[in-house]
Amino acid sequence: MNPSVWQVSGGPIQRAYEDVFLRHGVALIGPGDAGPFNPNRPDRSEDVVRRFATEMRAGDILLLRSGISSIRAIGIVDGNYQYLPQFDDVNGWDLQHARRVRWYTLPSAYSFEGSVFGGSPPRLSRINQPGILDYAFRFVYSPPDAWKSAALPALPPELPDLDDIPTWLQPLVAQIRDLFDLYQDPVTFGDLPAEDELIVHDVVPLFRALGWPVERIAVKWRYVDITLFRALPRTPDNCAFIIEAKRIGAGVEGALEQAQGYLNSLGISRDIIVTDGIRYRLYSASHNFEPVGYANMARLKQPALQLFEYIRRP
User: Fold this and answer.
1) In the chain, where does DSSP find H-type helix?
2) Would you say domain 170-311 falls under CATH 3.90.1570.30?
């Protein structure tokens, strides 16, 4: 009997996490903060989590979907459902429901004709379309074969929570967590706040707490959302960091290119911080703008302290 074929989403374009799947040999589903799947839980969990945990089988074929008609990789499911706490914050998503997968990354995205996965595809579903099934089976049952038995990549370590929050940070963390909970309730709060509101209530207060005086925190200086200056006057040479802010849910990772454009226009190379007021990601200018630091104010981990120390006022 042929294995089942499934499609799993690699996340929306602005907050994609497909690279995490490929790097660690996993397929991930959320929400996962409620804990491991348990069929006896009163809410019965979300149906997509139930199917992921109980209907998918080792040996099934998994298509890593990107958009409504394309796939980036094909994989073979290895083993049973797992709950992996180390994936509690993947670009802001809680994706602890996991399957190990041997992925084969396609040289370029493969596009089927039309919106084969639907106009608004679910993040996980079983495939029944003959054309997709034919493609999947022909691919898996054709060479090369080495990837089908290759060792699975290592899982990332589970990062410890930051339980002992520094005194100077405690009021700000409490405020941001209260706001974050409100932001998730459109009935009580209304529309999500705009970037400027996040800058006022969340971002600037963090840099003030990190020791930056107000005269060295510029807002909308030369079109940059926030610029930190190591000294006055406010000139490009005195710039220490630039910060690009995005609305919550817009995906901070997509802000890097825009921030690099600002640096080019200023004729300088500086570290970049991108944020949505809750999540902060640092990109190092000296390391080809690789991500080197991260903090999620709603779920702080120990490495966040290293980020805060790095961006403290010198």
Assistant:
1) 18-24, 47-54, 130-140, 170-183, 186-189, 195-198, 204-209, 256-266, 304-311
2) yes
